[in-house]
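In response to reviewer comment 3 from the previous cycle, which asked for concrete evidence that the modeling workflow produces usable outputs, we include below a single protein chain processed end to end. The sequence was submitted unchanged, and the resulting structure tokens are shown without manual editing.
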Amino acid sequence: MRKVLSWIFYISYPIVLIMLFASLLTTTPYMRISKGLYRTHDQIYYDHMYVARQLIDYINYRHDDMYFGEDENDPNPVMTQIAIDHMVDVREVYTRLRVTAVIALLLAVSSLVIMGKKDTLWLYQTLKQSFWLPLAFVVFVGTWFVIDFGRIFTWFHLLFFDGGWQLPSIEHPHYPGVFIADPLILIVPEAFWLVSGVLILIGVIFAYLLTLFINHKLVRRWVLSEEKK
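The workflow returned the following structure tokens.
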């Protein structure tokens, strides 16, 4: 029973952390910070932040309209139909991941509460050993990111999406005969996801360091006080 509860925490806690930092990256402030950082942003012909806000609000269920224009005064959809269909799939996948994260949070908290009530030393040891699994994950995924992010990006889409995620180039709406990447690719290119993935991994590492610090400073003190009784 002890090993089962410990492993429930080992598995559920990193899921919570990954989705927590992923949620922070799907915000308007993050899109504002990212503006102009990628080569494709130089080709953007629409109102960058207006479109970014529309995408973020759609992902977070603030509206269901993906047929917005280049700016708030433009009635013509700036997104291609294939990109719109892909964003529908993205929101569905992201929603399932968030639900999974909520379940993982409940499991992680429940396991900690049970361990804390039954044996504080058990709780301390579980937290002390909790970083090994995510450390292996971070090293493996981080190395993969550096070596071949394009392949991991493709495999991720093959795993979570049935099809329609490869967006073709389009003719520039203002310069006939000039072809550019899909409007969605322009604002969130592959490099955007590489940087976002790295930031999530850094966030997870920081969270575990904080967890280990709290465990050493507070939980360890709790264990010592229990042993003195």
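The first strand starts at residue 170 and ends at 171. We consider this sufficient to address the reviewer's concern, and the full set will be provided in the supplementary archive.
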